[in-house]
Amino acid sequence: MIFINKKKTFTYFFLLSIVILSFSKSIYFAIHNTDPLHSNLAFFDSYKKLHGESFYKDILIIYGPLATLFNTLCLSLFGKFVLSLSLGTAIIYSSSFIIYYFILANLSFSKKNSFRRR
Fold first, then answer.
1. How many beta carbons lie within 10 A of that of residue 15, not counting itself?
2. For 16-51, what is each residue's pLDDT tens digit?
3. CB 83 within 8 A of CB 108
4. Beta-carbon contacts of residue 84 (< 8 Å; ≥ 6 apart)
5. How many other CB atoms are found less than 10 A from the CB of residue 49?
6. CA distance 71 to 86
7. Is the pTM of this model over 0.70?
8. What are the C-alpha distances in Å from 37 to residues 45, 53, 55, 79, 82?
9. Mean pLDDT of 54-67
10. What is residue 39's predicted lDDT score, i.e. its pLDDT?
11. What pairs with residue 59 in β-bridges?
């Protein structure tokens, strides 16, 4: 007989549902964007970097070089669309829930390791 831990199964199901909900809401708000200035500024900086222009000489970077390099990676992976930046960002946001869960799950909150005086 196979033993199934119901508490752990529910926890993983709940975590997966939060990840899917976060990803879908991020994409929904990216499609129905009400602030085109932010996404277009990030897109054009990344687009210029993708075509070989250099930082601070050809491109005025507003959001920093690491953000521009990440957005350039998203443009090269998902296509040269404004929505590609939102797709990469949604993947990072959604995967952060999994990372947070495993960090918090590995912390021990027992009496032995608490912050109380001994």
1. 16
2. 999 999 999 999 998 887 777 888 889 999 999 999
3. no
4. 74, 75, 77, 78
5. 20
6. 9
7. yes
8. 12, 21, 20, 20, 11
9. 89
10. 85
11. 55
pLDDT at 95: 93
Size (the chain), residues? 118
Hey, what are 16's tokens? 């997966």
Which token pair is 89?
């960002």
Helices 65-78 & 36-50, crossing angle to 10 degrees? 80
With 0-12 CB in 10 A as exposed, 13-18 as middle and 19+ as buried, what is 19? middle
Asked whether 49 and 72 are in contact (CB, 8 A), the reply is: yes
pLDDT tens-digit series, residues 85-94: 999 999 999 9
Q: Residue type for 15, please? A: L
82 forms beta bridges with: none
Place of tokens 């993947």: 91
